[in-house]
Amino acid sequence: MPPVQAEPQQVKRDAARKGRAFTQCAAAEPHQSRKQEAVIKQATLESSRSGRGLAPLLIFMKTFVVGDIHGRCAQLLNLLDMLAREPDEPLVFLGDLIDRGPDIPGCVEHVIKLCREDPDHVICLRGNHEQMLLDFIDRTGAIWMTPATGSERTFEQYTGQALRVEKESDFDEVRELLVKSIPPEQIEFFRSLPFFHEDDHALYVHAGLDHGKHPRESSPHDLMWSRDMEFYKKYRGKPCVFGHTPTPLLPWRGRWGRHGIYLFNSAIGIDTGYNLQSPLTCLSLPDFTLYQTFADGNSATHQITSFIPETLKEMQRKAAAGS
Q1: Quick check: 189 and 112 in contact, CB under 8 A?
Q2: I want to staple 78 with a disulfide (CB 3.0 to 4.6 A). Which of 31, 102, 197, 293 is the partner?
Q3: Whole-angstrom Cα distance, residue 215 to residue 295?
């Protein structure tokens, strides 16, 4: 099987796309922003005045999806500066804002700012790291305290103290200090995060799907934690963009090109890892432009042209015909 063609390109800002997007959590209903409704009404009015049909006026807007950030605030800011994104095009964060990285509070603060400024178009999902933190705060679990999570970086950056746990009673002291140090609005933000998002292009989840089921039919645990090889290898439903599992750990057949994302059938993984060499990744749909930033300040842009799910290929053809 030939490798994916992914050549760097100078991306030009595209014309604003018109369309529809909606956010859902386990019990949420689809919604359409007032601005999007106004765009459609205006397009309908213009088409009726001109005698043209509505369809040629409505082409697909792009959706920009950012993988696991883990406190890499500088890389995030550089990444957002790269995006050829119009204000009305959705921006989706797949979760895991916290732990491991050098500026966790700054990262959380910036994402909250983006969500509050434009709640119709900026969506952040709940990752398993946010859930582990909430479980620890709520005394329903302590897995967040294990070294592998990188929680010591979150604790140190919010409290200004090193994380030390030598006996059982230390957990209560750590919890108390943590709750005092994290701004209450940030904890409430974590509690408010949905478990998935869906629009015309794809499904967006933190980790994966339960045996290929729609996210509304999957448990929050599966959406935040699953690592299902059957999903990675055999899922052929509506395209699903996910993070959580670093792409170097996913099946080798889907790991195409030097850009490091995973693309196999309808499963699209964009958690491109966390170390000094790993990029922070954003993928735009349906055009499959890939934006990446690195810890050393470098960046890269790729155009993915092979192994794109057929539904997204069709959207690309329709968008090209309507432009």
Answers
A1: yes
A2: 293
A3: 33
Give the tens place of pLDDT for each residue, 257-272: 667 899 999 999 999 9
Residue 63 β-bridge partners:
285
Residue 322 and residue 235: Cα distance in Å, rounded?
30
Which structure tokens are listed for 199?
Answer: 């629009």
Long-range contacts of 40-47 (CB under 8 A, 24+ apart): 43/18
Q: What is the pLDDT of residue 56?
A: 40
One-letter identity of residue 20 = R
The CATH number of the domain holding residue 284 is 3.60.21.10
Q: Output DSSP code: residue 222.
A: H
Q: What does the block give as tokens for 29? A: 């209903």
Q: Which amino acid is at 238?
A: K
- Name the phi and psi angles at 206, rounded to 5: -75, -45
Query: How far is 83 from 291, CA to CA, in rounded Å?
Result: 7
Instruction: Give the residue numbers spanning the domain of 302.
Output: 61-135+185-322
Inside any domain, residue 26: no
Cα 171 from Cα 213, distance rounded (Å): 38
